[in-house]
Amino acid sequence: MRSYFIAGNWKMHKTVAESVALAKELKDKLGSCKEKVLVAPAFTALAAVAEVLKGSSIMLGAQNMGPEEQGAHTGEVSVLMLKDLGVKAVILGHSERRHSYLESDELVNKKVLLALKHGLEPILCVGETLEEREGGKLEAVVGTQVKKGLAGVSAADLAKVTIAYEPVWAIGTGKTATPEDADAVHAFIRKEVAGLYGDAAAKALCIQYGGSVKADNAALLMGKPNIDGALVGGASLKAETFVPIASFR
User: What's the structural domain count of the chain?
Assistant: First the structure.
């Protein structure tokens, strides 16, 4: 049976107490979930949420990390610190990091390689803006992000990478790419990866969709042949909206 990867990105929301409360609720309600599930709280809540999730199948993720192991990098959080807290995966290259904080493909790639070096599973985010889509640049933009993001990643390490396609225009807007449009881009990403690593590796690659995923569209999206999961933003902030997505089948 096909497996899916459902990740909740809590972004800059929730105090430690609020994060613990949500983690407890998810642990209780998703104990028998068939899918691979991850939550990514704010850095300040990682340690507390890690304690809550002990003994559960829910993975602990981080929303970002610095590009160096350690050193004079004020305000950054290193891969070593994340591992120390029990983090298993890290979201990298999210559109908010790319567009609000001007992270380049090269910087994202450096983080991807560092995460893999230390045994974390990177979720590499790619996606186009509405202007780029309407200007016919979707494939050029997404293809470049995929190729540059995976530069230097070995075939063996590719198995630990998840790619999340998130059309920038659909994040937090309520707009969603149609399941057919989303699947077409996922198929394109798989084709790009096949050109780099071969058909078998591309077929095995997990590609999530991110962009206003909700309980009422999750099953339709997951039903498409190239969509292997979801990177969920706003709907991951409440158990009542996240649990139905993770339990879509």
Answer: 1
Query: Which of the following is catalytic: 94, 96, 128, 186?
Result: 94
Question: Using the 8-state DSSP alphabet, how is residue 58 labeled?
Answer: P
**Enclosing domain of residue 183:** 5-246
Angle value at C-alpha 2, between 33 and 212, nearest 5 degrees: 65
State the pTM of this model.
0.96
d(CA 87, CA 31) in angstroms, rounded, equals 19
Instruction: Look up 186 and say whether it is catalytic.
Output: no
Residue 162's CATH number = 3.20.20.70
Residue of 103, 121, 128, 166 with catalytic role: 166
Instruction: Using CB atoms within 10 Å of the CB of residue 25, give its burial: 0 to 12 exposed, 13 to 18 middle, 19+ buried.
Output: middle
Cβ atoms of residues 227 and 186 within 8 Å: yes
166 is catalytic: yes
The string of pLDDT tens digits covering residues 1-36 is 578 999 999 999 999 999 999 999 999 999 888 899
CA–CA separation, 45 vs 43, rounded Å?
5
